[in-house]
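Before drawing any conclusions, I needed to go through one protein's amino acid sequence and its backbone structure tokens, quoted below without any editing.
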Amino acid sequence: MQQIWKKGMYMAVLFFIIGILVACSSDSDSSGSGASEDDSEAGEGKVELRMLWWGSQDRHDRTLEVIDLYMEENPNVEISAEFTGWDGYWEKMATQAAGGNLPDIVQMDYKFLAEYAGKGLLADLSEHVDSGALDLSDVEDTYIGGGYIDDQLFAINIGANAHAIAVDNAMFEEAGLEPFEPGYTWEDLKETSKKLSENLGDGVYGVHPMAGVMGFKHYLRQNGQWLYSDDGTALGYEDDQILIDYLQITADMLESGGAAPPEVFMDADANVEQFPIVTEDTAITMDIHSNQLIALESAAGRPLDLMLQPTLEGGELGHYIKPGQFLSVSNDSTEQEEAAKFISFFTNSIEANDILNAERGVPIATAVREHLKENASDAGKKMFEYVELAQEYSREIDPPDPQGATEIESLFENEVQDPIHYGEITPEEAAKNFREKASEILAKNE
């Protein structure tokens, strides 16, 4: 009898709860909105996104402010921020990718784009461009080409850069020499560097030399070639003479005294304050990106300028507009359209870009670029003007680097660039050694 009574009580409670739920549903339906205002504010219909990027504290602060602005304009969206420095960023990305936990929006670098897209980790954003969720109507093709792989758009450029050299034209004047003009050659670089060293006094040199992989890529483009084969399984150039010639330029400048010896510049990669052009140990620094000018001028406390890389007589255009960083959307994101809308806002909003202030490079939307250029500092104006100049001397960008490219770059630095700077190896030996070891790395892509 007691069990029957308990069962009856359970059934009564169950029917009571069902009755309340039905009544609530009826009230909700009769309101016409399906939810009360309080329910909406409590989070119904909320879209949640995660965004990951690398950078300095200044970049973090600016990006967080833009995220807050977007959420203020789009109260149905909640964006959680994750950020770190460059060191450790790709380890974090790899760990999240392995766990199937990539954030919806990730900052991407050109050298890793093919690797992440090739593993199916990034979404093709083309459909969102077609739908208008991602508005690229004010963006020239030059600025978005680098995000395509096999006609799929995996990344949006959020700051255009161009390969450059930094020059102190006041030091040229002190040495009694005319500044470089577009069209100067590699021979001009060698001769001018030697004269700068001779005329500027002891301990001051013409050039902080190169022999790096970035400069070699530029030299290859001038010769109509590229570092990698189309399928990424081998080096893209067949004759090692091209690398020998490139390395010989640096070897000649070191021998003539036009280039600073390695003890002057080998720690320069640690931070911008140690660049020899900042400390007035050289009048030229090779192989930088245009967006570095602002930091260089700030560290130097004096005006500096940007100039194109030397031309190769009879050669092709070596420059291209480089995506400084991209924003990509995870292929596993359940909110890809909303992620694309945020990237569109990041790209086109004047207010957002007033906050970002071209810290990642020159914005790709024409209206934004023109607005920021009008209000830029002197260094900022130089950066904008240089990218416009470089665009005149550019051709299409080469495909993204294949898997193994970071290993190739480390190999080049450690077994080509540094030994050449220290005179420990000949250009011929360096070229042969690089081909053997680089071929082993790239063969893994077969």
Observations:
- The radius of gyration is 28 Å.
